[in-house]
Design a protein that fits this description.
Helices cover 40% and strands 29% of the residues. By secondary structure, it is of the alpha/beta class. The strands form six sheets. The protein has a three-stranded mixed beta sheet, with helices on one face. The chain has a three-stranded mixed beta sheet with strand order 7-10-9. It is elongated, with a radius of gyration of 24 Å.
Length: 359
């Protein structure tokens, strides 16, 4: 056994487990005396922006760097904005804890569509004119990607016992998940969310979600899909963006096989539940699904089953089962009849039965 090859890997894993690689990688990449390097070394304990402007957010960073003692006068930000539009760009909602000032600045730049140049005495900021370029080295990207995976894996061990959302806004749902994670593991790093597409913070609600005993990443995924959004994990934050249907499936073939097997088991288990009688007249899809859920609750040997109506555009909101009368049918068949009436389809996941508009 060659310990010369094992030792570096052990050291890397130890660093990742502490969830510190992002700060370390950036700090190592910047000279101690450079302005960007100094910003990386200032950790801001709490960021809470609500309906702020870009200019106000930068003023907050100046004050924080001054109070941290790293910059006697605070870091200078110069906004090159001849049209006067960049300063007033809204930062509708951003909450972070224990994040380097350089990273907070990066999130603000992404939210407001700006770019920065670090001069010796000031950070020069202007609006984006070209596609942003990722200047990180390959090793930095690998370390940060590994840290993000560890963050997601750690969250997967946190099980939220109950979620009951009705017309919950994106920021309200994210606040709830943040509070739940803090309660479930008081020693875990704070859960930070960065909503890059601020239009998601406009009135856009998850209509109805009922979940029991699901891991934090699973709950987050179902909630965001209701809001037509998706998540990307980073070392210090979870980035929320508009959902992209072409997003690549990053699961391994083994993971896909495991997920498929779990879905088949879920469907087979539900097929063994008998529905003695169904008598629907002008019943909405949500009411019909809730009826099936209540039937399962009444069976002692079956754990609660999560049903999700994933319909961010509201195509299924007013759909109804005009008339359906059944006796002694498997629950999966009863669900199939309901979905046919409402123009919907089903997907069996490991943690939920997901209903979507028929494609």
């Amino acid at each position: 056994m060659d310990f010369r090859t094992i030792l570096p890997a052990v050291l890397l894993i130890s660093a990742l487990t502490l969830l510190m690689p992002l700060e370390q990688a950036e700090a190592q990449a910047q000279p101690e005396s450079s302005l960007e390097g100094r910003l990386t070394r200032v950790v801001i304990p709490n960021v809470d922006f609500h309906d702020a402007t870009f200019e106000e957010a930068l003023q907050f960073l100046t004050l924080q760097t001054k109070e941290a003692g790293k910059e006697p006068r605070g870091v200078n930000f110069s906004i090159q904005d001849p049209e006067g539009t960049l300063k007033a760009k809204p930062v509708k909602w951003l909450r972070l804890k224990n994040v380097p000032a350089r990273e907070v600045l990066g999130y603000l730049l992404s939210i407001c569509g700006a770019t920065a140049r670090f001069d010796p005495y000031a950070v020069l900021i202007r609006a984006h004119t070209d596609v942003a370029v990722d200047n990180r080295t390959a090793s930095q990207k690998e370390v940060m990607a590994a840290a993000a995976k560890i963050r997601e894996a750690n969250l997967a061990h946190m099980i939220i016992p109950n979620i009951a959302f009705d017309e919950v806004l994106l920021r309200e749902g994210l606040d709830f998940i943040t509070q739940q994670s803090a309660t479930l593991d008081k020693n875990a790093p704070p859960l930070n969310f960065v909503v890059l597409d601020q239009e998601l913070l406009m009135p856009r609600a998850a209509r109805s979600i009922r979940l029991r005993n699901v891991p934090v990443p699973v709950a987050l995924n179902y909630f965001l899909r209701q809001c037509n959004a998706e998540a990307r994990y980073e070392a210090n934050a979870i980035i929320v963006t508009l959902r992209n249907e072409s997003t690549k499936d990053t699961r391994t073939e083994t993971q896909k096989a495991v997920d498929a097997a779990a879905a088949k088991n879920r469907e087979a288990s539900l097929a063994r539940i008998n529905m003695p009688i169904i008598n629907f007249e002008e019943t909405t899809l949500a009411e019909g699904v809730d009826f099936l859920r209540q039937r399962i609750v009444g069976i002692e040997e079956y754990p609660p089953v999560n049903f999700i109506i994933e319909d961010p555009a509201g195509a299924l909101t007013d759909k109804k089962v005009k008339s359906l009368k059944l006796k002694n049918v498997p629950l999966t068949d009863a669900l199939a009849y309901i979905l046919i009436e409402c123009g919907a389809q089903v997907r069996y996941d490991e943690y939920a039965v997901v209903i979507t508009p028929k494609s």
